[in-house]
């Protein structure tokens, strides 16, 4: 499985993904699930993927091919709006899913994938979309400033309590890392290292990118501090 | 959906369930999902249910009928061990599931249910089982002192951090209520009122039973205090 979370805040876009891929418990590997594209000064886009690796890899490969094709109409770096970027990704995902599905059907198996697409192009607003396996999508709004794919339930309570559009980027980084920390603790199929990125409002480039390895001291310290803070908070609550 | 959690601690058994049942979003009702049985001084048993109401109601009705039948061999109040109680419940659940399944198949629908069965009889240890729709089951142990059914993911991180066999009953009550609180906040299909029960070790009766209504002041106060404690804890954590 996977856990990816994206925030659409007043100050910018915050993205976090894990990297664990497994086909059965004895076939575990690390694959990047976050893909960043930019034409500095013109646009910056982040895509995160969850689901069948055969589908997400093929879809991402086709998106890259389309960017390299000078005549292609399906380049996410040339599409005039973020909405059209989401439509390009959705239609490729849908095409790949149905191609793979027809092969899987013979084996009575299923494969699907979903994606989060977020970014901003010059002159347009920041936007973030969750793209379903069928290619349709929903968009983050001020009422719902975060989107999640994969194993999203363990890490949702902290986001529900902390994230709103006015949340600072520093607090947002803490919140998504703690949301991931809860997921890592409760679900074996989500694993380190993590990929983290920020696209600040109107920066039109990937403002920050960071890979957090399994031995990252900062993350381990934050994780331990959060465990202790939770236990202290728990001890201080009066029973009903 | 549903959220039920049971703890098997050194000091006793702690059970908590919600009561929301829905068949579509416009058909929401309150049904008890926790059923307590006792022969004071001889045995005390708690059963919690999740899944299709048609299956859980029929199973519970048959369990009650079997208790009332003086010749019945399937009375959970006469079975010589808790293991046999779990086997009785498992076999009834399995029978009802396959009866209903044969009807549902015609409509291409599926219905399943699972249960948590916990208790102690005189002279035996406290035991707690999670019974799957097929009737087979797993048992809580010192390594895994809690079992959950229904929407279990939102409320698992707090249990993972706090619950161990030596946890006091007062802390256990707080922990399951906070685990439920996270679930209520993040998932609409789980709803108040709540049913709470404690079977203390060797008490051989239901030591405590409590229904927590939607307007319960103690629960609201604890929920608000937990939200504030979480936000304070969050604010105090240094970013990585």
Automatic annotation (TrEMBL), chains A, B:
Keyword Protease: yes
Keywords of this entry: Hydrolase, Protease, Proteasome
Superkingdom in the source lineage: Bacteria
Cellular component per GO, a single term: proteasome core complex
Entry keyword annotation includes Repressor: no
Stretches of the chain forming a coiled coil according to its record: none
Alphabetized SUPFAM superfamilies for the sequence: N-terminal nucleophile aminohydrolases (Ntn hydrolases) (SSF56235)
Biological process, per Gene Ontology: proteolysis involved in protein catabolic process
Molecular functions per Gene Ontology: peptidase activity
Name of the protein described by the UniProt record: Putative proteasome-type protease
Organism: Salipiger profundus
Taxonomic placement: Bacteria, Pseudomonadati, Pseudomonadota, Alphaproteobacteria, Rhodobacterales
């Amino acid at each position: 499985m996977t856990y990816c979370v994206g925030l659409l805040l007043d100050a910018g876009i915050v993205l976090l993904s894990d990297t664990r891929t497994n086909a059965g418990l004895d076939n575990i590997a690390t694959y990047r699930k976050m893909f960043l594209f930019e034409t500095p000064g013109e646009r910056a886009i982040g895509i995160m993927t969850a689901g069948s690796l055969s589908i997400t890899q093929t879809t991402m490969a086709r998106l890259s091919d389309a960017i390299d094709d000078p005549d292609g109409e399906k380049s996410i770096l040339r599409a005039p709006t973020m909405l059209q970027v989401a439509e390009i990704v959705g239609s490729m995902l849908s095409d790949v899913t149905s191609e793979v599905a027809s092969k899987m059907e013979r084996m009575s198996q299923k494969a699907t994938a979903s994606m989060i697409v977020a970014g901003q192009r010059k002159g347009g607003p920041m936007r973030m979309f969750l793209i379903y396996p069928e290619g349709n999508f929903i968009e983050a709004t001020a009422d719902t400033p975060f989107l999640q794919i994969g194993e999203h339930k363990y890490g949702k309570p902290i986001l529900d309590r902390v994230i709103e559009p006015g949340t600072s980027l520093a607090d947002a980084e803490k919140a998504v890392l703690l949301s991931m920390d809860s997921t890592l603790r409760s679900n074996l199929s989500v694993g380190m290292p993590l990929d983290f990125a920020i696209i600040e409002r109107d920066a039109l480039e990937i403002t920050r990118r960071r890979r957090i390895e399994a031995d990252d001291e900062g993350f381990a310290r934050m994780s331990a501090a959060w465990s202790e803070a939770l236990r202290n908070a728990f001890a201080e609550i009066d029973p009903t």
